[in-house]
Amino acid sequence: MTIGDYGQGLDAAAGGCASAIGVGATAERIQGYAPFHANLRLHALLKAAAEARGIQFVEEPFSAASSDMNDVSRLKPSIIIGLPGTNGRLHEGEFRVTDEQAAFVFPAEIVADFLRRLAAEPLH
Asked: 48 forms bridges with which residues in the sheet?
């Protein structure tokens, strides 16, 4: 089987599953991961949460990183947060936590503040 054959099989499976629950499905073929699309509203709320703690908010205008989050961001509002207190490549054996406070407590505090800000936003 070729990659194209697998793709056609996945398209047929998605169509069959959708039909089984009474909905439709449309497959869109793209090469590789889609470009990541940061949701500007979520981005602004995260930036506000960081700046409220006196943390410099680093924004990368371009990243060569590739992730399934890129595809998710086409469907759902998304942002990506970096991990402080770690060293090595994610999902690889060399990945290590080097600072537990920075790796576990700090991100929990930032995410909690971000979620508080998000919950306070009017629904759009």
From this structure: none
